[in-house]
Design a protein that fits this description.
The structure holds 2 protein chains of 2 kinds.
Chain A lengths: L5 H11 L6 H12 L2 H17 L1 E2 L6 E2 L5 H4 L4 E8 L2 H10 L4 E5 L17 H9 L5 E5 L4 H14 L5 E4 L15 H9 L6
Parallel strand pairs in A: 3-4, 3-5, 5-6
Antiparallel strand pairs in A: 1-2
Chain B lengths: L1 E15 L3 E8 L3 E7 L10 E8 L7 E8 L2 H4 L3 H17 L7 H12 L4 H15 L5 E5 L9 E4 L5 E4 H4 L7 E2 L11 H19 L6 H20 L10 H5 L6
Parallel strand pairs in B: 3-5, 6-8
Antiparallel strand pairs in B: 1-2, 1-4, 2-3, 4-5, 7-8, 7-9
Helix pairs in contact in B: 2-7, 3-4, 4-6, 6-7
The chains are: A alpha/beta, B alpha+beta.
Chain lengths: 199, 256
């Protein structure tokens, strides 16, 4: 006879596939929910609500509750600047910074040769179409400072070249709070190359 | 517990959990090595690392410990060509070279790509020639495939045997033969034309070794390189390259 009932085992296996959860933590979470029926009912209700109400913005790829997300629908924001991010979590991080008043474009990943992710699997065509439609002055590439992120950036820059928009990228170099002797030589070279005049 | 260590080129990292990554390395002694690298979020493809790989059984993935020996990634990220090359090396390794098999010549060729001073297209062509030789598609470009008069001018390469063919021998089959690049003993021509010849030649044999499977990172890189040479040629006062046929003759940059 099986140690745990089959539906419970299926729940554990499904939970274990979520990011940040392994089989043991999935089992703990499943046990926690099943021994607290009210909490389980709450979560079921919330999940069903999220599934029904949350949708992907048809313009930028952000998550929202309407066809246009609250950022794209905000008339105060500068639609002439598009900030390209890898995922919705990056968009939220930039929003938390409070230093950006333009709109976004969520690519949905970066090209990755080892994983076989090519440009066609990303929302690059949609970005080019937005720029082609006009009214865009600058595209900011806020992609990860990894080789894959920057390869994606170079690829986008090449595709946007014919439209004459300014394509910029986030600064690279010393992170806030870092000490010089802890930085690797590559990052230090970038920091030196991108130095700013202070006086 | 079997432990392996040495120096390797970091080809790629895939996030796993909060801080861990699945890293793919290419080392001289063991070829492609994959393993779980805890706290490896800061590791970047393109760097040279000193690694230690431990696993209980041969069919296990194993755990890696890495330390950056040469930090190259931060600089190559700013260069479009270098970033494309890094992606291509990862793709080429994944597609063509089995894991845990040493390819010393390929390892040397990978490093030559980063350390060389030749134009990018030449480094790429030389790298691909080394890779082809390592996987059994070596090109024999010094002698005519068909014995004929000594000193015959070598102009073509047989797409079947990978051997050079002289102008006289190849004349009836020109449409089927590949052009021998000047860098490997062919007829002198412009740099753009030679790049096209060399990359078409290696691309043709890479296509064979991959049974026609396309390498998208290569397509991107080659288009970028040839596009750069083309615009350079257009800017050149003496440049007389035939614009219309450039992309078409390369066949869209496919490996095949």
């Amino acid at each position: 006879m099986a140690l745990v009932p089959l539906p419970f085992e299926r729940l554990i296996k499904r939970l274990a596939r979520l990011p940040g959860l392994g089989p043991r933590s999935a089992q703990r979470a499943a046990l926690h929910l099943l021994t607290r029926p009210q909490e389980l009912a709450d979560i079921l209700h919330i999940l069903s609500e999220v599934g029904e109400q949350i949708c992907v913005c048809g313009i930028c790829g952000n998550l929202g509750m309407a066809e246009r997300c609250h950022i794209c629908a905000d008339g105060v924001r500068d639609g002439g600047i598009i900030c390209v991010v890898e995922g919705v979590d990056d968009l939220w991080a930039l929003e938390r910074s409070g230093g950006y008043a333009g709109v976004y474009h969520v690519l949905g990943g970066v090209v990755n040769a080892l994983e076989g992710v090519g440009p066609d699997q990303l929302r690059m065509k949609e970005l080019v179409a937005r720029v082609e439609a006009g009214g865009v002055n600058e595209v900011i590439l806020a992609l990860g400072a990894s080789v894959d992120g920057q390869t994606t950036g170079h690829l986008l820059a090449e595709r946007l070249k014919p439209y004459g928009v300014v394509v910029s990228t986030l600064a690279k170099g010393m992170p806030v709070g870092a000490e010089v002797d802890y930085l690797d030589e590559g990052t230090l070279s970038l920091a030196l190359a991108g130095r700013k005049r202070v006086a | 517990m079997a432990t392996r260590d040495g120096e390797a080129l970091l080809l790629g990292v895939r996030p796993l959990g909060e801080q861990g990554v699945m890293a793919t390395l290419f080392s001289r002694e063991y070829g492609t090595v994959r393993g779980l690298l805890r706290s490896g979020k800061g590791m970047l493809a393109g760097d040279t690392v000193r690694f230690s790989h431990a696993r209980r059984l041969e069919n296990q993935l194993g755990k890696l410990r890495c330390e950056v020996a040469v930090s190259r990634a931060a600089l190559l990220m700013n260069d479009t060509t270098a970033a494309y090359v890094a992606a291509y090396l990862a793709e080429l390794t994944r597609a063509l070279l089995p894991e845990d098999h040493p390819y010393e010549a390929v390892y040397e060729a990978f490093f030559a790509v980063w350390q060389g001073h030749l134009p990018w297209w030449r480094r790429l062509a030389e790298l691909e020639r080394s890779v082809l030789a390592a996987v059994g598609y070596g090109l024999s470009l010094a002698d005519d495939a068909v014995p004929c008069a000594a000193g015959a001018e070598l102009c073509y390469v047989s797409p079947n045997s990978g051997r050079a063919v002289s102008r006289a021998t190849g004349a009836p089959y020109v449409a089927k033969l590949l052009e021998l690049p000047a860098i490997w003993g062919g007829v002198p021509c412009s740099e753009a034309e030679d790049a096209l010849r060399a990359l078409r030649l290696t691309g043709s044999f890479l296509g064979k070794s991959l049974h026609g499977k396309e390498l998208t990172a290569r397509t991107r890189l080659v288009e970028h390189l040839l596009g750069g040479l083309q615009s350079q040629g257009e800017n050149d006062a003496q440049g007389s390259m035939d614009d219309g046929g450039f992309g078409k003759r390369f066949g869209g940059g496919s490996a095949g």
